[in-house]
Structure formats: C-alpha cells, structure tokens
Write a structure and sequence with these properties.
Layout: H1 2-17, E1 38-39, E2 54-58, E3 64-65, E4 79-89, E5 92-114, E6 136-143, E7 149-154, E8 168-177, E9 188-193, E10 201-205, E11 212-218, E12 223-231, E13 236-246
Parallel strand pairs: 1-5
Antiparallel strand pairs: 2-3, 2-4, 4-5, 5-8, 5-13, 6-7, 6-9, 9-10, 11-12, 12-13
Length: 248
C-alpha cells in the first residue's frame, strides 16, 4: 500500500512540474554579418540564420522583413545601424541585436592615364585631326536639388601635356562617391583641354560608352580605386579615381 501511495505522489509531482505556466527555454536567435563594414549602396545579405517557425527583422533604417533571409538590401546613408532579429518558436519570441557599420567613400586623388586627342568623346569623328598637346584641367560635377548639373571643383590647368608626361595626378578634397542611380561612378570626374579661342574640349571622363570599368576596395586598409577606360593607354580615355572609406 505504501509503495502504491509513493508512486502516486511521484506521478503527481511530475505532472505538477509540467504545468503550462512553467517557462519554456527558447533558443536565442542567431545570424552572421559577413563583412566588418559596408559602404553606402553596397548590397548586404545576412548568413547563418538560425531555424525558427517565423521571423521578423528590423533593419534599423525603417525597413522590415518577415523572410528568413531578407532580400539583399542597401543603406543609403553612412552610420551605425542596429539590426534586430526576432524569431518565434511554438509561439514564443526571442530577439537578438547586432550592429551594421556603413562607410562613406571619399575620393582623394584622380589620375589621368590617357586622353583622347580629338572630339571622339563628344560624338565627333574618331579620324579627325589631332588637337595636339592639351592644356589639361580636372572638373568634378554633381547635381543640385533640381537635377541641374553643377560643377563643385576645378583644378589648376597643366599646359601642353604630352603622353610622355602621363600619368598625371590631381588631388581632390574628400569628394563623396556613390548615389542611388549611378553607384560608384558618381559624381562625374572630367578632364578638359582648355582653349582660349573656342569651347573647352572633353578628353577623358568616368562615364564612357563602349568602355570598361573596374572597382576595388580593400576593406582591411579601407582604401580603393575604380577605373574607367576606353581604348588603351596609347589611345583612349583612361582615368583612375582613388578613394578612402570613412566609418562613422
């Protein structure tokens, strides 16, 4: 009889220990931010996201997602953004927060490696006679609030530049790079041949048709460059924009 009573008490104790009101251990959600930092307009995709029944993301910039893996997204302004992931398992929620750092790229130097000696970049005849040694200056363009083109920088002129003198370097002071529509080719860096008796002639720039481009950023050193080239260094339009990434 005593054994039966003891078994009944033990069963009752086990039943009481499994009450619905007892807390349920919920695993802490997890995800990985692959890079130490990103730049504005750079695509971001999270990895190593833990399993759950449902997900809710707050990306820290007003955007949200309920996918397990949010679509590739971008931040449009530099700064530090707190990303919150809330997962739901058996109706119970758990949240984790992590920080995404977003840098702004600033150009500090533009290098002219080759220039076009006729009006080819302005839609002219490639076979037109050479204009000789150009008087070279760099001008940087952006857009104002009315989408009107606006020059924000002009260098000094270097006179009668021959190809033997290339490459030429032109320092610029923290020109921000990147925008929604043109990404890393914005703003526009243009080299002109200064003429006193007629319009200045465009001889190289970072938006050329039928050309090639390359972008490189070393995130360890936080420095990089991009190039735009049409033709070769013996003939063509070729410039290199060097920049640094600045974190908030």
């Amino acid at each position: 009889m005593r054994k039966q009573l003891l078994a009944a008490v033990t069963a009752l104790a086990l039943f009481a220990s499994c009450k619905k009101d007892d807390p349920v251990a919920i695993p802490t959600p997890e995800f990985t931010i692959p890079e130490e930092f990103y730049t504005i307009w750079e695509g971001i995709t999270f990895k190593d996201i833990s399993e759950a029944d449902a997900y809710k993301w707050d990306l820290g910039n007003g955007e949200t997602s309920e996918y397990r893996v949010p679509d590739t997204f971008r931040y449009t302004q530099p700064g530090s953004y707190t990303v919150k992931l809330t997962t739901y398992i058996n109706g119970h929620a758990s949240t984790v927060e992590k920080e995404v750092k977003v840098a702004q790229l600033y150009a500090y130097e533009v290098e002219l490696r080759s220039y076009v000696e006729n009006y080819a970049l302005e839609g002219g005849d490639l076979a037109a006679p050479s204009e000789g040694k150009p008087n070279v200056y760099l001008q940087v363009f952006t857009y104002d609030n009315n989408l009107a083109e606006q020059a924000i920088y002009r260098s000094d002129t270097r006179y009668e530049v021959s190809r033997e003198e290339l490459p030429l370097t032109f320092p610029v002071d923290r020109v921000p790079i990147g925008s929604e529509y043109w990404s890393y080719i914005y703003p526009y860096f243009r080299f002109y041949d200064q003429n006193d008796d007629k319009s200045d002639r465009l001889i190289a720039h970072n938006r050329v048709g039928e050309g090639s481009s390359r972008f490189h950023l070393d995130k360890a050193s936080r420095e990089g460059y991009y190039t735009y080239q049409r033709g070769t260094d013996d003939w063509g339009s070729h410039l290199v924009v060097k920049f640094k990434a600045e974190l908030p």
